[in-house]
Specification:
Elements lengths: L1 H64 L6 H29 L6 H20 L4 H30 L1 H6 L1
Subcellular location: Cell membrane
Pfam family, one: PsiE
Membrane topology: Multi-pass membrane protein
Length: 168
């Protein structure tokens, strides 16, 4: 009876092992496909924002040429649009690293939050939002900056740790 149970157990382990490799291969290929799709979405979004940037630049130069006194709103819109390109570039770089099988830094996500908050700050000051909202954005920027420093410090420590180098 014991031999029969051991034999059945071995057969099940063999079948599971035979299923394991193709399943892992399928999941890895599916993951690559998702990252390829995300990279394409990031490229199209970057192109759209770049065209938006060109439109804002044209509007700014048009105001300068027509000697309109208030060019600050156009300049802030242009700068806000340019800030959107920064995290998209970093996200695309991260997707390339992921497809290559490399690790990405958590600072990428903190940088994206910082860029979004800076853009919100610019827009809120341009639209003359309430002062309390501006203070919240300043506090958020300070918190994101502290988080970024902590993440950078921990990544530096883990990269210099000999145990982590052996695992990689």
């Amino acid at each position: 009876m014991k031999r029969l149970i051991v034999k059945i157990k071995r057969n099940m382990v063999d079948k599971i092992t035979n299923i394991d490799a193709p399943l892992i291969s399928f999941l890895e290929n599916f993951d690559r496909l998702i990252h390829l799709f995300l990279a394409i979405v990031i490229v199209f979004t970057s192109l759209a924002i770049f065209m938006w940037f060109i439109h804002d630049a044209y509007e700014l130069f048009e105001r300068i040429i027509m000697f309109k006194k208030n060019i600050s709103s156009s300049a802030l819109k242009l700068f806000g649009t340019a800030i959107l390109l920064w995290p998209l570039s970093a996200l695309l770089r991260a997707e390339i690293k992921l497809v290559k099988g490399e690790q990405i830094s958590l600072n990428l996500f903190v940088d994206t939050a910082i860029a979004s908050t800076v853009r919100s700050f610019l827009i809120s000051t341009e639209e003359r939002e309430s002062l309390s909202e501006t203070y919240y954005l300043i506090i958020a920027l300070i918190v994101f900056a502290i988080v970024r420093l902590i993440v950078a410090y921990t990544e530096k420590i883990s990269a210099s740790n000999p145990r982590n180098k052996e695992q990689q």
